[in-house]
Each structure stands twice: as C-alpha cells, then as structure tokens.
Amino acid sequence: MHIGVLGGGQLGQMLGLAGIGLGHRFSFLDPAERPPAAQVGRHIRAEYDDPEALERLVRECDLITLEFENVPEATARWIDQHAEIAPPPQALAIAQDRLTEKLFFQQQGLAVAPFVALDTAEQAQSAFAEINGPGILKTRRLGYDGKGQVRFEDSDGVSAGFEQLGRVPCILEGLVDFEREVSMVCARRADGQMAFYPLTENEHQNGILYQSRVLTDDPLQQPAQSACRAVADALDYVGVLTIEFFVRNGELLVNEMAPRVHNSGHWSLGGAVCSQFENHLRAILGWPLGSTKPHSAALMRNLVGAMPQPSAVLQLPGVLLQDYGKSARPGRKLGHITLLAADQTTLDAQSEKLEQALADTPFG
Asked: Going by C-beta distance under 8 Å and a sequence separation of 6 or more, which residues neighbour residue 276?
C-alpha cells in the first residue's frame, strides 16, 4: 500500500517508520526543504494547496492521511472528492477553529472551561465581564505549542492581547484552577471498533509539552474513554485521535482535540505492545487494532532546543532515544526519550538520574 501524508514532520517520520515494517510505502507533501519524514519516504515539496502537487499525491497513493492539522480544510475536502482520506475533513475543520471545537464538545455533552468569542476590539470589555476573571486569550485558528495565546488579568489586558495577536478572531477562556492536565490517545476504525491508550499526565514548560507520564489504573480512565468515544462516534472518525483534558475537582474538562497521532503518545513507541503510529495505520487500513497495553511503567520526555550526546543518556537502563534529525533552534522539538521501568518507584528514581544526565551532558 502506498500511503500519502499531508505533512512531513516528526509525526510523519514515525508513521513512516511504523509502516515500512508492515510493507507500506509513503509520500509526504510538505513545503519544507528537508522535513524529517523525507528520510523515510518520497518528499513532494509544495504548499498544501498546490493543485499539481495534490493531483500527484492522489495519483500515486492508495490512501491519504495527515500528521499536521493546520492543513487547509479546502485541501482535505478536495482530496475527499478524489481519493480516500482519513481522518475525515470534518474533524480537521473542527480542530482548526477553537470556537467551533468548544461548541462541538458542548454538543456532545462534554464539560469545557468557560469561554466567549471575541471578534472586535470593541467587544473586549463585555467579553471580559462574561468571563469575570483572569484567563487566556487565544486565536481561533493556527495555534499550537503555546503559540497564538496571551494571558490576561483584566479588560485592558484583553484589549492589549487582541492587538498583540493581530486583531484576528479569538476566544477568551477563563483560567481553570486544575489539579493536573491529562490526555488520551485512541484509535477508531470505520466500523466503530476502538482502542484506548492509558491516560497520560502532562507537564508543560513555556507552553510546550515537557513530559508525559503513563497513568495506570487511573479513576478517570473510563470517563476519558467515554468522552473520546462520544467525539469519535459523532465525527465517524477513522484513525488516531487525541483529546486533552484538565482535571478539576476530580472531574474532566475537555480542553482540545488533535485529529492525529500526538506528542503525549510517543511513549507508546517502544513502551506499548502496539504504538500509536502503527495503530493509526491499522485503523485507516481497516486492519485489527493492536493492543494498547504498556510493557511497563513509562514516561516520555521531550528534547527541546538541543539534542544531548546519545552516549550520555543511553548508558541509563530503560532509555529509548528518538532523534528527529531536525536542525536545532530554541523552542523546537528535536527528539524525545522514552523511559521504561519495572514499576513507578523505579521509574521515579530513573527519571531523576535521567534529568541529572541531561543536566551534565553537553548538547549539540
């Protein structure tokens, strides 16, 4: 099977690595000169709305998927008319607009943080009054890894943030006093069969995911699965879907969804019987879904801005290192480490040793 992928970043790279072993070939459409996925498949260098490139992708591939949700909705809908694409364009359209996404979650009966739309500067005061407290102003579109958002404390902060974000349509979200942030990665086939990975607890630094720890026997596992099923069924979803939650007073508030494989699920690459990348391919091909069971206690630690010397971290037991082959720059995800251990106590001890090794090793 020849699979086309919209996007050629590290997620596409890991999809390709998972698929090559299953006998598949890949073409990646990406405007970058040397994206990470070019190492594992054919690279079609073009913009996502380039007609000739899209026609080529559809012509040479049996099935199209995506690893990046900021692809133009029109591109996904055009492909849907000319080829098979998964996940469905509707999921992409909803995930691209934070307001549409919040309203969609509410329609499924899921709790979300307080929010209000902001389209003009004149609405700043009334919008703040509706939230009635500090929060975050976010662009409705094209935001990820902390981009496209500004904290505010009062209506003046809302006005200033609206200017800072370029006066584009936004939403205000009330600040949530949460105990923790968690996410669930799941996979769904066209016939409705689903598989759910364990919840992960996520820690962020500077708006970027820093670490995800796999949770076992968490009391919110079943409620999270129910939320994921409600969203996936409503969309007639096919592929891997990720939903991020806040936990407040022991209950889930849905934050956002990603219609793709997700950073918080990278631990599954080596840490689960079947990785999220393989299960995405299984789902879109209609194959039986693989087991999501972890091999052991596990966490994933992102490597941002610079890569450590491999020998410094690989000397530690239970370390799996992934280097995406990207050029270094501040705030850029360059790779990740999956850490495996027999139990949580050992994992905690090994995590401390890993952090010390990362602090002591030269980067470059």
From this structure: 185, 187, 197, 240, 261, 262, 265, 266, 268, 269
Give the mean model confidence (pLDDT) for residues 325-350. Answer: 95
Kindly state whether residues 206 and 349 are assigned to the same domain: yes
- Give the integer Cα–Cα distance in Å for 315 and 171: 47
35 with 150, same domain?
no
Is 109 within the bounds of a domain? no
Phi, psi of 16, deg, nearest 5: -60, -45
With vertex at residue 340, the alpha carbon angle to CA 338 and CA 342, rounded to the nearest 5 degrees, is: 170
> What residue has token string 């069969």?
193
Structural contact between residues 320 and 352, judged by C-beta atoms closer than 8 angstroms: no
How do beta strands 115-118 and 25-29 pair? unpaired
How many other C-beta atoms lie within 10 A of the C-beta of residue 136? Answer: 19
Burial tier of 129 (Cβ tally within 10 Å: 0-12, 13-18, 19+) = exposed
For the segment 6-32, what is each residue's pLDDT rounded down to a tens digit? 999 999 999 999 999 999 999 999 999
210 and 335 belong to one structural domain: yes
Tell me how crowded residue 84 is: count the other CB atoms within 10 A of its CB: 15
Give Cα separations from 215 to 158, 162, 264, 299, 326 (angstroms): 36, 38, 12, 9, 30
User: Which residue segment(s) compose the domain that 258 sits in?
Assistant: 180-360
Sign of the Cα torsion 235, 238, 244, 247 reads: positive
**pTM for the whole structure:** 0.94
Count of Cβ atoms closer than 10 Å to residue 364 Cβ = 8
What pLDDT, in 10s, does the model give residues 250-269?
A: 999 999 999 999 999 999 99
- Which helix (H) or strand (E) covers residue 65, if one does? strand 63-66
Are residue 199 and residue 329 in the same domain, yes or no?
A: yes
Tokens 């994992």 locate to 347
